Amino acid sequence: MYTKDGESYFIVDAHIALWDARPENQRNIHGKQFIDCFYDYHRNLSPQEEVWTYEEYLYQGGQRLMKDIFDDGYVDHAIFQPAHLGEFYKSGFGQTKEAYDLAAANPDKLTYNHNFDPRDGEAGLDRLRADHEKMGFKGVKLYTAEWNGASRGYKLSDPWAYRYFEECRTLGIKNIHVHKGPTIRPLDRDAFDVADIDHAATDFTDLNFVVEHVGLPRLEDFCWIATQEPNVHGGLAVAMPFMHTRPRYFAQIIGELLYWVGEDRLQFSSDYALWTPRWLIERFVDFQIPEDMTEYGPITTDQKKKILGLNAAKMYDIPVPAELQLPRAAEPETGPREPERVDLAGAL
Amino acid sequence: MIVTLSEPEIRVSGALGEEDVRRALDAVVDPELDEPITDLGFVRSVTVTADAEGAQAVIHLRLPTSFCSPNFAYLMASDAKDAVAALKGMAKVVVELDDHHDSEIINVGLAADAGYRGTFRHEAEESLDELRWTFRRKAHTAAMERCLSDLLRSDPSLAETAVGTVRLRELPPAKHTDSLLRRRAVLGLPEGPDAVVLVDHEGHPYAPEDVPMALRRARSTRVSIDGNAHFCRGLLRTRYAEAEADQAYRPEAAEHHQLLPITVKEIHP
User: Fold this and answer.
1) d(CA A176, CA A17)
2) Nearest by CB to A256, which of B223, B228, B261?
3) Cβ–Cβ contacts within 10 Å for residue A301, how many?
4) Where is this region: Disordered (chain A) (predicted)?
5) Is B266 on the interface with A (CB under 8 A)?
6) Chain A residues closer than 8 Å to B239 by CB
7) Predicted TM-score (pTM) of this structure
8) Which of A93, A212, B62, B73 could form an SS bridge with A235, CB 3.0 to 4.6 Å?
9) Residue of B130, B235, B255 with shortest CB distance to A248
10) Is the pLDDT of residue B264 over 60?
């Protein structure tokens, strides 16, 4: 919980990881390249005083995670979204057992989501069933640019992906978090294109599709599919820290998202350990659209409350104290949101 | 095929030098960010030597992360090789992409002139033409929005619903207008003074009721491209401390750039 100026915010960090990128766990040069890429994101977008050393960044462990997220970070509940990356790291990047055990020991604070790879075929389906029986997760994190043998990516519209979604339906795994990456097969087209999510969301209307980093670097494509599909949501991983280095760009991102997707389908996340939640939450609560950007309406306190926690809490049935709850916005399910608000802003 | 923003100056006589190679590389554009690789700081080094057969150039390219899309990385590297090889008197060109997860695959493919399919083999189906066209269309969409938003900001009496009939002649002579005309030329759209500004990539204008939505969609494309451009530039500087000196200033969406407010006068039925 975070309180500022008499307003209290229930906080759900909807995308965190417990990773191990230490050299002894790196399978090859790509393991180093991958964590170096993350570390450059961290160094590039963090305020000076929040920058970690490279050694700290390689691995945090459960104790450090609990301190950063809950003791220092105002977070009420956090959700693991593990990336496997088995071709880059010996025991994977996201540490399944360590994260699951930590969540099992702190069920009021942590939710463990799992992952699968549709290219693993029938054997992978068996594993998904067994993993679900053991860990009972409500959501999965899919990385479409995961390397797997000779393949370096897949699409959510692939027939095998559909087999897995059907299994998710059967098992009661309702929340599909999708993270796009640079490789797909074939490489002919844009790997970051989110059109495959549109197909899957249309065919599996009873599943929620949360597009992580709100489709960045294809914000426009994400906005366009999300405005049409009521079961497509946006995760703000990676987008949040732009508040610090590029506040005017962040204003445009959040302005576009509130216009196309609306306040009820956006979820805050720190993307821990890419960044830590404390400074992101403090700055987001203080954030406002610059006055000269009248093409966007001002962001309201209620919208911030929903984004910071209420939306993810609803998706994951996380109990929220009654006095902190808010009703859904009186908006249509699809299409641009509240265009009238923008009018009012322009008239001021 | 090379996306040409400006014709490279081709020397007819005299030995080719590093500057000639860099000017040729000015014609190579990052399709995603819609900017020359020279302005982005992606050209790490250029070395030119000469022998009896002519000039030989060795060019090293660098990108903001090891995990930038390999298809775009290949496009830029192969365009760079083509652009420099086209210089008169250039006998041999070596282009190497540094520090990328696919450096080895791409550099071997470039050295062998293996083409896209020869380079990526089972991961390649046909060609990267569709990818290129996708981003040419996005570049046009963003250029169109910049011009129309400039117009809306400069003329408070102009309604957002009215921008659907604005003609090219009504745009002020400015950098954004020139940029729009170049992107229209790439798509084969008319460049005459009476041509409508707000059109889709095939040149069709929008019905009046669809104009605000078309402008809003174009805005999201422009926000996305400008945002990516600044992020990628920043990441390159984080990754390579010396890169900053090589980057040209990009005014679009620069952080300190204050805007004249748009007076929003959309009509909602």
Assistant:
1) 16
2) B223
3) 13
4) 328-348
5) yes
6) 40
7) 0.93
8) A212
9) B255
10) no
